[in-house]
Design brief:
2 copies of one chain form a homodimer. The first copy, chain A, is of the alpha/beta class. The first copy, chain A, is built from 14 helices and 12 strands. Chain A binds a DNA duplex (30 and 30 nucleotides) through helix 3 and helix 5.
DNA sequence: AAGGCGGTTTCAAACGTTTGCAGAAAAATT
DNA sequence: AATTTTTCTGCAAACGTTTGAAACCGCCTT
């Protein structure tokens, strides 16, 4: 077994690999006895502890690779109390929104040797609550959260926070919790977009807003109102409708608008899925987009480019949001008790055909 | 500490909970010393071992709940060698395809107390390889796989299989691996769809096919060819183009078709994303869908309902596929070495406006 | 010659479970 | 009453790592 005595070697393992079924993994014990040193030395070497002589470290790394060693994360976590896993709690995975953010989170986390556990609640608060418990039970080192719009599990999250679990929010930030969050500059962009619709001649702009509990969605509504005010256009309550983020809700709202005979020449929805539903229903009614009605969404993703006509929207830098969220969480994990810091990212306005017959205004931030 | 001696009680823990930061979790040791019994009894009771007297078991369950015990999955896994976690390897999460299947997988797995680890390779074979290694390193009890179309990591999967990791495929089944898979009856549905296009008067049907390595995609192509043959329509190589599954590829193919002056009156793509790209490009060229060109996709999801006009496609029962895959994997895990069994699920044909001006043919399986 | 001091390495005790085996108590058989 | 069987519980050794504290070694200082 021991190299110094010339007995056996890694062939032992290679043989077993091919034969026995559950195949024993190589452990640090194996490396240690192979080199006739103690396990603690091996452990420290592999952890890049500076108390290990350079040659020893290199020798250990080399034989670890030779023997095909893979550290057992279970044992490491059990002993160290850190799982090197963070949880990501999302409220939907139908649109590419979440998956893009997750990609960003992974970029940072995997680089830091941390793996991530994803739970999707599909906008079901009960499922969300269960997911939070899964996170807790999985002993994650921290979690990144995008809550359901209802925000009814805030108490549960507070409990976790009380237990010392680091936590970062993105997308939807619940009012009344002090935790780092990464949000987009929704107000500015929504203002700009409304402004743009007005400048291109629209006067009767419908706004489909989200639930008030979510601060970020409220911002969009506020921007809409303030921009109307700037242009001295009266704020018409009939033109403001609340809906949740789904195409079906969009269709419903469009239907309501058509039925009630309200006259409108633009629709600005707080979510792409709603805007898409609106477009579809208006299409069916024989209305032309954008000639008859301009449509704009918000919080867009690749989806908005796939529909026809391509949808004007505001695209948050999803991947970057994920990366920022990951960085914030790492800060929290590494320095518990550090004060909570927020990050605002810059969303990009995408003026596309759904709002402008000629989608090439000179002030377009990025035209496609 | 010990109840029998009237010392301390759970208040001890409750107190600590509120104060100390990293908050010690309640362990079976705590329960044991609380009741003055051995940890093994507690462990067995909580595992529903039949060697425990009913009253003892109930007592233990009760106090476990009182003390707020939550089993430490790390320790359990380390000792037992089972992680009660299965991996899910997907090649994309942009479309809702994956997330629906994952939902199905979760339905079954969570019911069986198994959690799932999701890795997305975004159709990048290198990332896919890394993800496979993450799975291996995470000591999952088994994995459910939907490979990249390139299929270049098949060797790596074979290695895992050789190490005794149970494995189930869905969606794309690599040729040349014996493992359980769940696939849809693609051939039948593709045949039907082609037939339908021909019956509605289309003669020059373009087929956009996938890479040959994937058996399920080859089926679609075969069905297309066989159906043409049935109608004595010659198979024209110029009308068959290979592309990978993305809207951009769809646009590229459409552009190629327009440029080369090939005449065609229908496009049947092996993937919805391709079909959507085609539609967009044809729209831009001023062609009407379906009047000038009928378009049909395959392997659809909610996405196909969002675009305009709604896309004719074949929708596999995604959730059911996930559930079947999960069941197959559980079989493999519980009875290692059992022979591999395949499951075929029935996909639904959705005739929508993109292929039929009047989407209401009498033989439509489900019209919307 | 005794002591001190870095730089390295080892010892041994955790971490919270599961589980084969032994042992005790109770029940059943002789 | 003595034995066997059955039912239940306890002991203690794992699982593979991390980590504080101790120990060793060679070298320098006094």
């Amino acid at each position: 077994m021991c190299q110094k005595f010339g007995i056996a070697n890694n062939l032992y393992y290679l043989c077993r690999d091919k034969l026995s079924q559950p195949m024993k993994r190589v452990t640090i014990k194996d490396i240690a006895s192979h080199l006739c040193i103690s396990v603690s030395t091996v452990s420290r070497a592999l952890a890049d502890d500076r108390n290990i002589r350079k040659e020893t470290r290199e020798l250990i790394f080399r034989t670890a690779k030779e023997l095909g060693y893979q550290r057992n994360p279970l044992a490491a976590s059990l002993r160290s109390g850190r799982t090197n896993t963070v949880g990501v709690l999302v409220n939907e995975m139908v649109s590419p929104f979440a998956s893009q953010v997750i990609q960003g989170i992974q970029n940072i986390m995997h680089f830091n040797g941390i793996s991530i556990l994803i739970c999707n609640s599909d906008n079901d608060p009960d499922q969300e609550r269960r997911n939070i418990q899964i996170m807790e039970n999985s002993l994650v080192d921290g979690i990144i959260v995008s809550l359901c719009h209802t925000g009814q599990n805030i108490d549960e999250l507070k409990r976790l926070q009380g237990r010392g679990v680091p936590m970062v929010f993105f997308d939807h930030s619940p009012a009344g919790m002090t935790a780092p969050k990464v949000v987009a500059n929704n107000y500015d962009k929504a203002f700009y977009l409304t402004d743009n619709l007005i400048l291109s001649g629209r006067r009767h702009i419908v706004h489909i807003k989200g639930p008030e509990v979510m601060a970020d969605l409220a911002d969009i509504h506020n921007a809409y109102r303030d921009c109307l005010c700037k242009h001295r256009i009266p704020y018409d309550r009939d033109l403001v409708i609340e809906a949740s983020a789904s195409p079906d809700e969009g269709r419903r709202v469009a239907e309501h608008l058509l039925d009630s005979g309200i006259s409108f020449d633009a629709v600005f929805a707080c979510h792409d899925l709603i805007a898409i539903g609106v477009m579809n229903r208006l299409h069916d009614a024989g209305l032309r987009i954008p000639e008859d009605v301009a449509v704009a969404g918000f919080s867009g993703s690749q989806l908005s480019k796939l529909v026809y006509p391509p949808l004007t929207t505001v695209e948050p830098p999803l991947c970057e949001m994920g990366e920022e969220a990951a960085r914030l969480l790492l800060e929290q994990i590494r320095h518990p008790g550090a004060e909570s810091r927020n990050v605002t990212v810059d969303a990009k306005i995408k003026l596309r055909k759904s709002s402008h017959a000629e989608a090439s205004a000179p002030h377009v931030e990025e035209k496609e």
